[in-house]
């Protein structure tokens, strides 16, 4: 019965990484480019079904798994893209720790 927050803090690292990935498009591998396109499709599903919170969140979740592959592909990336990936990982960790310990994530 709760509405979905369209600008959730959980999405901030993903928005950050998509922005930098589009900016450094030429520095990425083909797999990384495909993952960014899949992430954009995931957000399209999320925002397209936002009126139905369960469908929006559950439809978006499978696409989040691709970030693991994206980070794994970052080993051969340029220095500036590696820095963006590192910031993505650190920001994701910080938001997860904050959500779990300070925002009472499970209640």
Describe the structure in brief.
Helix content is 69%, strand content 0%.
Question: Layout of SSEs?
Answer:
Layout: H1 12-23, H2 30-48, H3 53-64, H4 66-73, H5 79-101
Explain this structure to me?
The protein is globular and about 40 Å long. The mean pLDDT is 88. The chain is an all-alpha fold and 107 residues long. The chain has 5 helices and no strands.
Beta-strand percentage range: under 5%
C-alpha geometry: globular
Low-confidence stretches: none
Distance between the termini: 15 Å
Mean pLDDT: 88
Share of helix, binned: 55-70%
Structural class: mainly alpha
Q: Please give the count of helices.
A: 5
Radius of gyration: 15 Å
Total E-strand runs: 0
N-to-C SSE string, H for helix and E for strand: HHHHH
Largest sheet: none
Keywords:
single chain; 107 residues; mainly alpha; globular
